[in-house]
Write a sequence for this structure.
């Protein structure tokens, strides 16, 4: 390597072998860009997404450090997938994003970046695993080629060695007889196997950031844990950052260090998993936790104030102004007609948005009980 | 895969046989005595008897059918009843002419429709996509014979760039062949290209919504790369069906266009034979047309197998 791009530096010494690279990260060369500071891989600032005049995401702000796994939870229709797609620059035509999305080592925002620049970043510096493994792969192309393509596309390997590496990758995501899998078509594999293939594609170029949108929701319960495991260990091996969308709070508790709670296209609460799930502040989070099995198994069921959150998630654009949750919130007052400000909670090294909530009457305040 | 193909082939043979029986039976139930019909109502008893005997029309139907079948398989079709011209060489020549016409038209239609249809899909929210779409809608409505007449009026009569009709075999005069092929092929292709482009458009629109296209984008493929590498082959699956139907339509359309351009193809052979009441020739031409459609269907099936691995049997 004679030339070093910022992203190469951010990724440690260039090289495709993850173990090799992970090694070089530990013994950081003397000219490494940062000292002890945990390195921020993804920064999202003031992200707005709209469809025509309907605003779908409002002022979404968060960041993820290298090696950090951040969960994104919230009911259906809260805007989780939109957030993920906006980060990847894969919003469908007709949706417009404003704000900033920055990836480590790149100063300019990815929003509004040219398609050719984005396509060099996607699949290489950031990758995504989608919810539906049955439709995520091209039915008319052999699996091995689909894995190899992500490497040849980014000139990480020539055709032949990419094919060989594809088989190794399939092996590493726990597929038995990977050479045979490489030669088969997606329809010859089960859902769990296909999601492993998708994971192999996502991890092939050792991305800095892996975005997972409910990667196991569509799978058999029996294989969910297995697939989750291999994704998480793949992320850990590469010391990558992860944004993990799920409905399952128990999974967040095991997989993630930090969690973002989203509702009505806004992040209403954020913080370390133990804080947010164990001692939620925002009334929406409180309801979410109470409605989950996690809470029920911890406290005795009679005591939880809400079994499920009353009412339904309004359709996009029909959320109330002020606090988006106020039409469903048992604690709402006149004050809640204003937009609740962000209240930082404790001191988090990654900044005030890493931990806090936006609620006028948080759990434990005067209005409780 | 090969097993599937062999299965389809057997089906093809069976349907060819069934079709031949149907065509034969249909000709038998036509009113009137074929020998008398061929010779005309005023012909003498003896000449009719003579014809019957000469061509074995007095034999049992089964024997006649078997004889006809064998003739088609061995390409020994005998001579026409009245003109006494050999049928097989004429049929082959005419088939070649129609083949050139139909295949050229289909190729033209494909070459135009696939890129244009794809463009219409990709740009469906933009003005150019909408305008193209509207043009193709108009193209669908123009019948081939009208397109032929318009083409002759301008390109043959007014500007005299092309001959207005006729035919030369390619081996005899390649340039003359091409110049005579051009207008009728374009006349046939115009409608088919418009229809095909619309199918390509909707197939590509469908594919653009597919998850695997998003996966391809997430891998770092640019939108057009994703579409060409992952989309088009999948879009081809519904399009192949349309192609098969279109080839069959083109065969029929050729009958008309051959008239307009005075081309000695299968269509004009059929019309001439009907006019001169050569029933055995009519029967054979109809069978050839039916066989062509069946064979096209078989090829479409084979193409499906080649395109879509999900249709193939067997494990890895
Ligand atoms: N292209 C679009 N145009 C208009 N509205 C959209 C579009 N895509 C999504 N939405 C709306 O934005 C809101 C958030 O959608 P999103 O897919 O992000 O929800 P989600 O949190 O991922 O939900 P789920 O858990 O069901 O996946 C929904 O109300 C959805 O209807
Ligand atoms: S701000 Fe008001 S309405 Fe919103 S969650 Fe808090 S108490 Fe409920
Ligand atoms: Mg979603």
């Amino acid at each position: 390597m004679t030339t070093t791009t910022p992203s190469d530096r951010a990724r440690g010494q260039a090289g495709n072998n993850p173990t090799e690279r992970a090694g070089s990260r530990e013994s950081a060369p003397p000219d490494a860009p940062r000292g002890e500071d945990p390195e921020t891989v993804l920064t999202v600032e003031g992200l707005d997404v709209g469809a025509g005049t309907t605003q779908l995401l409002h002022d979404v702000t968060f960041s993820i450090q290298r090696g950090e796994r951040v969960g994104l939870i919230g009911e259906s229709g809260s805007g989780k997938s939109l957030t993920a797609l906006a980060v990847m620059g894969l919003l469908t035509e007709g949706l417009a994003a404003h704000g900033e999305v920055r990836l480590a080592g790149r100063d300019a925002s990815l929003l509004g970046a040219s398609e050719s620049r984005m396509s060099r970043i996607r699949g290489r510096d950031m990758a995504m695993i989608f919810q539906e493994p049955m439709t995520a792969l091209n039915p008319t192309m052999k699996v091995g080629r689909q894995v190899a393509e992500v490497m040849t596309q980014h000139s990480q390997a020539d055709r032949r060695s990419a094919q060989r590496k594809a088989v190794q990758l399939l092996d590493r995501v726990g597929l038995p007889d990977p050479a045979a899998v490489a030669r088969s078509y997606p329809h010859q594999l089960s859902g769990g196997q296909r999601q492993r293939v998708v994971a192999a594609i996502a991890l092939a170029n050792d991305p800095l950031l892996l975005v997972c949108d409910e990667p196991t929701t569509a799978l058999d319960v029996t294989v969910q844990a297995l697939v989750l495991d291999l994704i998480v260990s793949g992320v850990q091996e590469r010391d990558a950052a992860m944004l993990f969308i799920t409905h399952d709070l128990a999974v967040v508790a095991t997989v993630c260090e930090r969690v973002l709670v989203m509702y009505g296209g806004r992040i209403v609460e954020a913080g370390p998993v133990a804080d947010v799930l164990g001692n939620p502040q925002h009334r929406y989070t409180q309801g979410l936790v109470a409605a989950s099995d996690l809470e029920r198994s911890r406290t005795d069921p009679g005591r939880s104030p809400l079994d499920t959150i009353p009412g339904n998630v309004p359709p996009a654009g029909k959320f109330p102004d002020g606090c988006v949750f106020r039409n469903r919130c048992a604690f709402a007052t006149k004050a809640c007609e204003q937009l609740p400000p962000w209240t930082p909670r404790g001191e988090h090294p990654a900044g005030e948005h890493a931990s806090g909530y936006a609620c006028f009457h948080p759990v434990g305040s005067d209005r409780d009980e | 895969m090969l097993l599937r193909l062999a299965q389809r082939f057997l089906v093809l043979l069976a349907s060819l046989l069934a079709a031949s029986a149907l065509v034969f039976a249909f000709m038998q139930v036509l009113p009137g005595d074929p020998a008398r019909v061929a010779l005309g109502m005023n012909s003498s008893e003896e000449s009719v008897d003579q014809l019957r005997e000469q061509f074995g029309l007095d034999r049992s139907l089964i024997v006649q059918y078997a004889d006809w079948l064998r003739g088609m398989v061995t390409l020994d079709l005998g001579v026409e009843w009245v003109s006494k011209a050999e049928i097989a060489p004429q049929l082959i020549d005419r088939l070649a002419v129609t083949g050139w016409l139909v295949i050229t038209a289909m190729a033209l239609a494909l070459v135009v429709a696939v890129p244009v249809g794809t463009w219409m899909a990709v740009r469906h929210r933009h003005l150019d996509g909408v305008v193209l779409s509207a043009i193709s809608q108009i193209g669908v409505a123009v019948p081939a014979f009208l397109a032929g007449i318009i083409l002759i009026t301008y390109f043959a009569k007014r500007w005299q760039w092309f001959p207005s009709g006729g035919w030369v075999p390619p081996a005899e005069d390649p340039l003359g062949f091409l110049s005579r092929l051009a207008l009728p092929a374009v006349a046939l292709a115009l409608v088919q290209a418009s229809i095909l482009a619309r199918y390509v458009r909707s197939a590509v629109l469908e594919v653009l919504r597919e998850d695997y296209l998003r996966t391809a984008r997430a891998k770092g493929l640019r939108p057009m790369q994703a579409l060409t590498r992952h989309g088009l082959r999948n879009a081809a699956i519904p399009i192949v069906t349309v192609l098969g139907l279109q080839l069959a339509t083109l065969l029929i359309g050729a009958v008309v266009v051959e008239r307009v351009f005075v081309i000695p193809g299968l269509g004009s052979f059929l019309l001439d034979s009907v006019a001169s009441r050569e029933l055995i020739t009519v029967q054979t031409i109809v069978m050839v047309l039916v066989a062509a459609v069946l064979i096209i269907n078989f090829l479409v099936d084979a193409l499906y197998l080649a395109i879509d691995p999900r249709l193939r049997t067997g494990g890895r």
Summary: Residues A 282-284, 323, 325-326, 329, 331-332, 336, 340, 359-361 surround iron/sulfur cluster (ligand 2) (CB under 6 Å). Residues 1-83+279-316 of chain B form one domain. Chain B touches chain A at residues 125, 210-212, 214-223, 229-230, 233-234, 307-310, 315-316 (CB under 8 Å).
